[in-house]
Amino acid sequence: MSLDTIQKYERVYEYISDYHKLLYDFYSKHAVSFLVTYYHLNVDETIWDDNKLLGGAYEDFGSLTGVMYDKILLLPVYFMEDVTTAFDGQEIGYVKEGTTSLTIPSTYGFIPYPGDIIKFDQTFLRQTNDIYPLFRIEGVEKSVNTDFTFWKLIAHQYESRTTANIEQYQLNRILTFLDYDKKIHLLDDGSYLTRLLIKNESLRANLKDLYDTNSGLYFN
Length: 220
Hints:
Blueprint (H helix, E strand, L loop, with lengths): L14 H16 L3 E8 L27 E9 L6 E7 L2 E13 L11 E3 L14 E9 L7 E9 L4 H7 L1 E8 L4 E4 H24 E2 L4 E2 L2
Parallel strand pairs: 2-8
Antiparallel strand pairs: 1-2, 1-5, 3-4, 4-7, 5-6, 6-7, 8-9, 10-11
């Protein structure tokens, strides 16, 4: 029997591709999340010292630094682990080092870097008693080598740093995560889109009251 006489079958689904999209695209946007303020290192605007050993910037923070960040508000992160605390004896005394890990999907459209900073406690939730520390990304792990993936971030407590240090000298632009389309926008654009959504909700509620079920018409 020749191969030409064998009936050809064609699948109507792509199981592997569908499962991959379900896991890395759909689940990455609809899982239970925790909102954080994320300071993403802007490598294009940062002034690097390429003439010194190992490169890098002159200072980590302050008025003399060239390191610049993009501030992302209300960014959802996933699969947060408990903060482990370990005391390390140093010359200045015992230092408590906090370590945790979290996951973000590649569907956010940016690549996390070691040196990024995370603020777990939102400012608007604790405006007068903001005593919680910052965490700095020290390690980045990629789950799979594909277009859709997850980034696992290892974060350590960032000693003696506050958001005031960053936002006074090192803030390049402010962005926000919009839950409606699951994307990151400039703060002004995100505020405008949020106002449109609120107006659309009000309009839909008003039209529902004007609809007549008997005639199928809207009466004012």
